[in-house]
Amino acid sequence: MKELNHDSKDTQTEGTKPWIKPAIVTVRGGLLNKFGGKLEAAWMDTIDNVPIATLLEQYGAPLFVVSEQRLRGNIQRIKRAFCTRYPSVVFGWSYKTNYLGAVSNIFHQEGSWAEVVSEFEYQKARSLGVPGPNILFNGPGKKPETLRQAVREGARIHIDHLDELYTLETITEELDTQLDVALRLNFDTGFTEPWSRFGFNVESGQAMDAAWRIAASEYLNLTGLHSHIGTFVTEPRAYTQQVRIMCNFMNEVESRTDCRIDYLDIGGGFASMNSLQGIYLPMEQVIPSIEQYAEAICDVLLELTHEREARGLKRPTLILETGRALVDDAEYLISTVIANKRLPDGKRAVVVDAGVSQLFTAFWYNHRVTPTRLLQGRPEETVIYGPLCMNIDVMRNNIMLPPVNVGDALVFSPVGAYNNTQWMQFIEYRPNVVLIDEAQNVSVIRQAENLEVVTSQECLPTHLAEPYPQGTPENPFSGDRSGRKP
Ligand SMILES: *Cc1c(COP(=O)(O)O)cnc(C)c1O
Question: What is the pTM of this model?
Fold first, then answer.
């Protein structure tokens, strides 16, 4: 332990040296972490060649920045990885991962369908022009009205439970229409915690019972099987096992009923290059590449569907609903430093203008934090707080950061997955989101909120419509000021 040497450069003004309460901090030697990895000392002052300073000047801080080039690069790479390994592949863009219209339309332009899980997401996909048959409709809470619309528009409905199956039987009977449907399955891969709350369980026979039920229906045809085994799945073998179980189930259904399966939808869940809290290895060692996932899936799928061709059947189309792995690294959150603080235990704190209400994923990731200039000075263990008046507003715990000044920008990344959907308007307005296109033009794709936007849905009942009481309210602090400064 030694007494902390405050770097007085930041706070010193001509002639005076402000007093700062001394504190004791642990000396941490060396600049490598215990795995020998480099600390986050790098800096960046542009995103896709656009200066960050210019972005902040024009669009304010905090600011979300999406890279169109990265989005297209990601979807093209995953398509190449799967389409070179399997003959029939479809991608469905997972709306809940990031349903900004501009982001969704980039994926749609690249050929992705829409994967939706609610009335809102269904309507959003339709409003963006996605035809019904190119919508994969998942989720445990589909409303009867939305199901009716989806049936009429030919969407691919992935049934989650028996009550939904009954509702679909009623709707198709009323409309006197035939409907192709898929069953959502759950099972134990041995590599992931089973998400047994979604769909029908395979091991218990529940899923086969549902298949029988559909086979007996006058109006429903079982043509697809779906499962989504988890999110941020870092073990490719989980997918190999998933494909095995789904192929076995497909064969069982086809041999015991007259159903013919056209597609296997294996959901999403591929991990992105983000640091989960509690994992200390470098992410490059933990996160498989897209090609490794593709190999783990396509090799076994090719093998297990080979004999179908001999029986004159087509191989099932493979559908993927990849979310976070496609979008996470294509978005940045630029924040600026509001204040430096010293906590009573000696730890250094920095307050920035973006909080967890905007960066929801700060609760489980250690996002990379990159300054926009070379920071001089000794890095020190720092906690980064957001601007919310809430104790939980921690943007980054335990990051080694050299001294920063008020007004410095700090870039959080990757932030593209689940933030522009799970963020909330809480205390602060949500900021602008801009897109940098492939010609490096910048456009706003979601405007910052203001008072009007945030209050637009509120209504004041007449007895509460009175403005703030007029006249001078009694001031408890008025009166005798003797003994005080004039
Ligand atoms: C959320 C979700 C996805 C996308 O998951 P990621 O982990 O972001 O890839 C895909 N399919 C379904 C059914 C989902 O609920």
Answer: 0.90
